[in-house]
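Input/output pair, single chain:
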Amino acid sequence: MPWIKILHIATLLCWCAALLYLPALLLASARTREGTDFEVPAPTLLRFFFTHVATPFALLAIMSGTLLFIVGQLTGGWLVLKLAAVSGMVLCHVLCGALIVRLERGRRRFLTPASGVIVVLAASLMLAVLVLVLSKPFD
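Output:
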């Protein structure tokens, strides 16, 4: 069981980092650049990071957490709240994907405030997960 915990914590850290980095990449990509000869198109880089880095880490974190839940036979009210917070993080992940699609289509309107909301919401949910896991308040 310790290797499942290690896998879960490692993949969760990588997913959380990617979830905080994606809105920053969106903000940087939303700015129009002029006069640069050498650059990778931002939507291409964003889509690559989303599909090949952030999403696999998200899936691994969720699968290892589910395995940890099943093998460890974890129960308690804190777990329900933690799963609700993780569901919110998944929603933030999906919203980042939707914003990437909007950026690819050239619709930059509301991209900046939406990215800001995603960062604040994701960071709050990550903090909630951390507090719930460490304190297990309704055990």
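The two ends are 20 Å apart (CA to CA). The chain has one domain: 2-27+39-135.
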